[in-house]
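User: For a reading group we're discussing how well predicted structures match intuition. Take Carboxymuconolactone decarboxylase family protein. Before you show the prediction, I'll give you the sequence so everyone sees exactly what went in.
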Amino acid sequence: MNFPVNTIESAPESARPILSGAQKGFGFVPNLLAVMSTAPALLEGYMTLARIFDGSSLSATERQIVLLAASRENGCAYCMSVHTALAGMQKVATSVTDALRNDTAIADSKLQALRLFAAAVTRTRGWPEAEDLAAFEAAGYGPQQALEVVLGVGLKTISNYTTHIAGTPLDAAFKAVEWSAAA
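Assistant: Thanks. Here is the predicted 3D structure of Carboxymuconolactone decarboxylase family protein, as structure tokens, for the group to look at:
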């Protein structure tokens, strides 16, 4: 099956305003969104969830940890690369993104607990062990943040699975931070 990487002009009419907004925000249309535009409902759902997740109680660093942990657990090279770049733009410490990319511990124990919980939620398809939840709570997180992790994992699952199915090519803008599980 061939999944097009649409342009604003080639995308279905209902997806064009969303792609135009992405063009304004990023300076280009990321390939993931261009691919998603083939199914405008998917694109709209993804962008809506992304906006909602950005309004959660989690900080920018914490949100990127959730998104990178889920992407790594799902083996999504595209999303690992893109979120490394986005994390940098959001001033997330390089040591944090390096730990996620290299599968090493984050020095900050609270952020490490978040990373482990997000990975457990992803890996277990929403059935983390009681110990995972207890460690998350012991680090200072509560029920709201646990459910916001579910939101972030759901958001990334949409993009991870889209990328896997469609074979989304990495954008030139993200080549400098390209990631692969083998690296």
